Amino acid sequence: xxxxKNKLKIACIQTRSQPDINKNLEKIxxxxxxxxxxxxxxxxxxxxxxxxxxxxxALLKACSNEDNDNFLSRIKSIAKNNSVxxxxxxxxxxxxxNKLMNRSYLINNKGLVSAEYxxxxxFDVNLSSKEIYNESxxxxxxxxxxxxxxxxxxxxxxxxxxxxxxxxxxxxAQAGSKIIFIPSAFTKTTGKDHWLTLVKARAIExxxxxxxxAQFGRHYKGRxxxxxxxxxSPWGKILRNKKNGxxxxxxxxxxxxxxxxxNSIPSLRVNNKF
Length: 274
What we know:
The protein has helices at residues 21-37, 56-62, 70-82, 166-174, 188-206, 256-264; strands spanning 7-14, 42-44, 85-94, 100-107, 113-118, 124-128, 131-134, 146-149, 154-157, 179-181, 209-212, 216-220, 223-226, 229-232, 238-242, 247-254. The chain is an alpha/beta fold and 274 residues long. It has a single domain (7-266), classed as Carbon-nitrogen hydrolase (Nitrilase/N-carbamoyl-D-aminoacid amidohydrolase), CATH 3.60.110. The protein is globular. The mean pLDDT is 96.
């Protein structure tokens, strides 16, 4: 079947990862297969698809090197066997003895990695005396912006906290991205006030589709995420939104909307230096 290059049926998966990688894999596989049966040609999963764990040493022990990662291998097989593209929003892979990487993989319909992105902005924040995050202690941050071609459009990759750095999205858009992914595990504390506002802003500012699959619910004591997986149009319209629970949202993207939005408000062409 030929691909309609100006149309893309896309799915976002919302899940609740826990400390057991195998159980998380079973759930993700089931949700991906459900999206495939509904006709999705590109399926996106959230940040931390393989694991969320409160203990640093246990996390280091549980995660694998990229070359030996069963979670990644299984998702590649699904993509190949069903001739679909999968954005594995992020999995945690081992970088060294004491450091991990939060890495996103775009897997093509042949089961090969088309692009990978290492999260650049570490979530080092102090939300309250009981809710403190310091990702840079455990994770090695990335250093490169990533865009890549797909049969439908150039896409840009980002992860969660990157969302708060708008210049990153402007650069991804100026590099040709018509779709930008923001797989996330946004905290419930910040999500209720900031998440949808920020996601819509990134879409409007750059005249692009934003695909933001998210984690939802309580993962372990002290860690709860906001959910609200969302697909947003270049004009800032919410096309689909899953507020809570696990499951799938789907939409058919009309890629012509990108040019219409950018021609109506040509802000990407302005490159003032202050």
